[in-house]
Amino acid sequence: MKKKKGINSLWLVVLAPMGAILVSLSLKNPHLVEKLYSNGIYRYIGIFLSNVTGIVPFSLGEFIVIFTFLFILIYAIKILIKIITRHISLQNFYRHFKNVIIAISVVYFAFIILWGLNYYRLPLSKIIGLDTKPASINELKSLCINLIEETNSLRKELDLNSQNLNKDTYSQTLKRAYKGYDKVGQLYPVLDGKYGTPKAVLFSKGMSYTGITGIYFPFTAEANVNVHIPYVSIPSTATHEMAHQRGFAREDEANYIAYLACKLHPDVDFQYSGYLLALIHSMNALYSSDIEAYYELNNRYSPELKKDLIAMNEYWKRFEGPIEKASNKVNNTYLKSNNQKDGIKSYGRMVDLLIAEYREEHKK
Question: Which residues form a coiled coil (predicted)?
Answer without folding.
Answer: 137-168
